[in-house]
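Hi! If you just cloned this repository, the fastest way to understand the data is to look at a raw example. We've pasted two of them here, unedited. The first protein comes first, obviously.
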Amino acid sequence: MGLINLSKYLLRFLLLQSSVTFITIWYFDKFLIGEYVSGYDIIIRNLLEDRARFYEFIPYNFVKIDVYLALFVFAFLIILYSTDFYSYANDLVLTTNKGFFDEFLPIYLIWTASYLSFLQIFRFTAVSRGYLVIFTFIVPLILVGFRNTETISRLLGRNPSKENFISFNLDKDSIFRELRLLKYRNNLKNYNNTSDTKEIKKLIEKENKENEISLVVIVLEETKHFSKEFETYLLNLNKKVLLISELDFKFNSIFIYRTNRLSNNNLFYINNDIQIGSRYILKRVMDITISIILLPILGAIFLVSNLFVISVAGYPSIIKQKRIGLHGKEFYMYKLRTMHASSHEKRGDLKELNQRSGPLFKIDDDPRFIKGAKLLRKFSIDEIPQFINVFKGTMSIVGPRPLFPEDNYYFDEHYLRRLNVLPGITGLLQINERNTSDFETWFKYDLEYIENWNLLLDIKIILKTPFFLFKSKVSGK
């Protein structure tokens, strides 16, 4: 296990350990003992008697109910994490799991048997039996949520079962469709009898521009290796890639991938999805936490600005625009209205006045602006409603600015990489060259962000944004 994976593994364990320990102790005090204060004296007396009989080497300071509960949870999780049953969810195996109950039941039985045995062995006899039955369901629900990151990701806005994949040469009745990686995802399109890598690349680009794609599956036919160019292309997709081959397939480069053998075929799983699993969860938790902290300040500014827009231009004061998000997913982005009605549709009539390149659009003294709009845009007040998108999970606080669906026309295989992270309210561009008129500059910072993304970079950008915001000029996008 690599250092990075080990760190993530330990972080998830510590988070689970602290969560379950806190809930176990809190629930014990609040419900299992509750108002029966004498119950504490009964249990402590039993623990002291057992210490005197069996383990006198334990200091008296450790003979506390909370210590025993915490040690039990720690020991239980250590044993549970040491099993492949709980700690390892292999995407490259066939799955027979039909639903949540199938995953919940074995964990429930293990936890209940362990917890009841602990209470019996250490003579925690003064607990409420009714609340005890309820508690046997609570911790297993938490354990199922932490078993793999997909459950938590689903709660935070990224549902793997709603993601799409495209495939090449994958038969309709193929056994590989039962792989855990594929079973709960939607096969948007399958291309048969396609083995030429140039054609595969062309079709991937086409689907990337038209649909939301997070996984590419290629069944290799009489292919033992790719060209260096195509291999690099697959790695730079920043998506999940599954290769299936009967032959002893070899890669040109050294990189991290997972492999398995099934039905006389070799499976090669490359996961270069940038924001997935624990990385996605940590980013979303940070986004939500910071948004809640900023809510009182931004809420007050937005309320005043919203009343101003209504007084000047009437309703609606908040508009929504269709934009492109993570892996090409379309969503509606919210903005405080700074232009007259149907302003976006009028871009075509004003394109000769456009002062930016590619899909960017800016006109000095744009006739579509309402009175006072320049001030709102100068300080990005019009973007405050995008925190709604942050809460919904369609945007992040930090990331490339989301563009319109029709802007995909300008994208080639390099530009498409900017779609592989959550779009954001601010980013590297905003703290460097916010008012640039060159789309190449946009992409330069987007690519730098993609290749260097981590939470510390997000924090750095967030802290720098206010300082650069007050030095900015009016933005046209």
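Ok, and the second one:
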Amino acid sequence: MKVSILGTGGWGLTLGKHLFENGHTVVFWTHSPEEAEMLSREHEYRDKLPGVKLPAAFKYFTHLGSAISDSEIILLVVPSQVMGNVARMLATLPPKGKSPILVSATKGITEDTTQRMSEVLLSNIPWLTPENMVTLSGPSHAEEVSRGIPTTVVSAGPGPEQISTVQAVFSGRHLRVYTSPDQIGVELAGSLKNVIAIATGILDGLGMGDNTKGALMTRGLAEITRLGEALGANPRTFAGLAGMGDLITTCMSRHSRNRYVGEHIGKGEKLKDVLAGMKMVAEGVPTCRSAYALAKRLGVEMPITEECHNVLFSGKPVLEAIKDLMQRELKAEIWN
């Protein structure tokens, strides 16, 4: 099967390497001619995936039409805030034969429209049907998957045949894929856990303990579930791989870019300085704005997300934010 991967970040390259090892034909699209030339020459991306050699058979295109020609699966692994631009480009390239399955492996919610990635793609691509829109998400750091460390993820969408096709194509010796019909829940879980990871990193930067982090992750999952239910998700999804699994991984891992951002905020650094020193995108930063806006619009209580928003964008001292969370009105432990 031919798979076109849009985006040459660490996760896109890792998935491409994995699919190639599964016996599929893999091509890439990048907007950068310099990046395409470097990858074609060096078969490695030291800044994004150091120490991982990529197959010499990979082809890298800067012309989108050439990259997706005759592909059966188009895998999108671009930053969430540029997904709309990529979708509008795809809209001008309707398939000549059978429509490909579009798979989004991007975790995030747009700042301008507060849309999930499947919503961005479906609202911008006239030839894309809901059944052909699949989400791939779960606890899956590229640094580990690229080295063959066992990992499990979820293929989610409304089309049973399509999510099963993605399951079969992506599953391999080191990557196991489950299926779910709850695309809303899987996408929200994968996006919102990045906000909680920033908050967890702040605790690490302050030198807080395991008790605090355990409480934060648990209550973070509770408020993610509340927002998910308000948007039509199945609450059970948030106890699965895309929910609790990805939340634990992202909050605890040394590979987590979002936890890294939070840790440096906790140490007293400014957000703009932290982001300026990063080579990769921390999706939790724009997603925090989006989640805050969604919660306000829907009337959903998300105190951790709100305080994270206050710290990142309003300059609220982190210790004051923690004090306000601890001194909220006492209540029973409920998840709705």
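That's it. A detail worth noticing about the second one: The two ends are 44 Å apart (CA to CA).
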